[in-house]
C-alpha cells in the first residue's frame, strides 16, 4: 500500500517532467519531492524513475502507476466530495424502524421537516413493532428505532441510547351508546364484565397484567392487531378495547368513544440508536427532528398535558441503574 499524497506528487512529476517543476507547482522544496518519491518507491518495492542525462524517464513500474494515477486521484476526489456532502448534510441515508402508529403520526412531519431543510437526505422507513424494531437496530438493519414501553415491561438493551419523545395515554374504546361514555374517565375494574377485543398474545401482556392487578381476568372474545378492525368491532357493540390516544389522532371510527382508563396509564414512546450512530450526520439530524415533532402542540395534546417530555437522550443504563454507557450528545 502507498500513501495517496505520494501518488498526487508522482502524477505532478510525470506531468511536469522534473522534481523541480513539481516542487514549484505544489509549493514544496525540491528535496521534499525527492524524499516523497523515494518513499513511494520503497512502498511499491521497485524504482519508478530512471535518469537519462538531466531528464527523468519512467520505468516499467512507473508506466503502470502513471496509467492508473489519474483514475486513483479521480476516485479519491469523488470519494472526498461524497463524504463532504454527507458530513454537510447535502446527502445521506438514514433507516428508521417504527411501529404503525408512529409511522402515521411522528414520522411524516419529521420526514417533511428534514426533506425541506436537506433535500439530499434519503429516509427509509421500515415498519416493525418492539421488541423486533430494537432487535433490528442491534443487528444493524436500521439506524434509529421508534419503540414504546409500559411501566413494568422489560427494558430495551442497555447498549442502546434512548431519546425520550412523549407519553401516549391509553383509552378504553366504547360503543358510542355505552353507559360508561357519560363518565369523564373509567376505572379498569368497572370493565370486568365486558367482552374484550385485544391484540396478539405478545402485545397484550401489559393489559392482562393490569386486569389481574384489579381482580379480574379479561374475557377476550376477539384477537386482532388491526386498529380499524378493533374500532369496527367496538362500534358494532361486540366488545370494548384499549387503544393508545395516538392511534385515535389519525384513525377514529364515528361509532366509538374513547375515555381515559385508570390505572392503565400511558405508554412511553422513545427513539433509540446505537452510541456510534449519534456521530452519523443524517441519523443525528433525524433524531433532532423527531424530538422537534414530539414537542409540538399536537404532541402535547396527545400527552394529556401532564407528562413532562424528556429534554435529553439517556443511555439505557441511566434509566435502569445498570452499567454505565457512553454519554449521549446534545441535539
TrEMBL record:
The keyword Transcription regulation applies. Residues 2-59 form the HTH lysR-type domain. PROSITE patterns: HTH_LYSR. Residues 294-331 are annotated as: Disordered. GO terms for cellular component: protein-DNA complex. One of its GO terms (molecular function) is DNA-binding transcription factor activity. Residues 299-321 have a biased composition (Basic and acidic residues). Keywords: DNA-binding, Transcription, Transcription regulation. It comes from the Bacteria. Belongs to the LysR transcriptional regulatory family. This is DNA-binding transcriptional LysR family regulator. It comes from Nocardiopsis mwathae.
Amino acid at each position: 500500500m502507498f500513501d495517496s499524497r505520494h501518488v498526487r506528487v508522482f502524477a505532478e512529476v510525470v506531468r511536469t517532467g522534473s522534481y523541480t517543476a513539481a516542487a514549484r507547482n505544489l509549493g514544496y522544496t525540491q528535496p521534499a519531492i525527492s524524499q516523497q518519491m523515494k518513499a513511494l518507491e520503497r512502498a511499491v518495492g521497485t524504482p519508478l524513475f530512471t535518469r537519462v542525462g538531466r531528464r527523468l524517464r519512467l520505468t516499467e513500474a512507473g508506466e503502470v502507476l502513471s496509467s492508473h494515477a489519474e483514475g486513483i486521484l479521480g476516485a479519491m476526489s469523488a470519494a472526498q466530495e461524497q463524504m463532504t456532502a454527507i458530513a454537510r448534510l447535502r446527502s445521506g441515508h438514514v433507516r428508521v424502524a417504527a411501529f404503525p402508529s408512529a409511522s402515521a403520526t411522528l414520522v411524516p412531519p419529521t420526514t417533511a421537516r428534514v426533506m425541506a431543510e436537506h433535500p439530499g437526505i434519503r429516509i427509509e422507513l421500515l415498519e416493525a413493532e418492539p421488541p423486533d424494531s430494537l432487535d433490528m437496530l442491534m443487528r444493524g438493519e436500521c439506524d434509529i428505532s421508534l419503540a414504546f414501553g409500559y411501566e413494568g415491561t422489560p427494558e430495551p438493551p442497555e447498549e442502546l441510547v434512548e431519546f425520550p419523545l412523549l407519553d401516549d395515554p391509553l383509552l378504553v374504546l366504547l360503543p358510542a351508546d355505552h353507559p360508561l361514555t357519560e363518565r369523564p374517565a373509567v376505572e379498569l375494574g368497572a370493565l370486568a364484565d365486558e367482552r374484550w377485543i385485544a391484540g396478539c398474545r405478545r402485545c397484550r401482556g401489559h393489559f392482562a397484567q393490569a386486569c389481574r392487578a384489579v381482580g379480574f381476568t379479561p374475557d377476550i372474545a376477539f384477537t386482532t392487531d388491526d386498529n380499524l378492525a378493533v374500532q369496527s368491532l367496538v362500534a358494532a357493540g361486540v366488545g370494548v378495547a384499549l387503544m393508545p390516544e395516538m392511534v385515535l389522532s389519525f384513525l377514529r371510527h364515528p361509532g366509538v368513544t374513547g375515555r381515559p382508563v385508570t390505572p392503565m396509564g400511558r405508554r412511553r414512546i422513545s427513539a433509540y440508536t446505537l452510541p456510534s450512530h449519534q456521530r452519523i450526520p443524517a441519523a443525528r439530524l433525524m433524531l433532532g427532528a423527531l424530538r422537534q415533532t414530539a414537542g409540538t402542540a399536537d404532541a402535547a395534546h396527545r400527552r394529556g398535558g401532564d407528562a413532562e417530555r424528556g429534554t435529553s437522550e439517556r443511555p439505557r443504563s441511566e434509566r435502569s441503574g445498570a452499567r454505565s454507557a457512553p454519554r449521549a450528545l446534545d441535539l
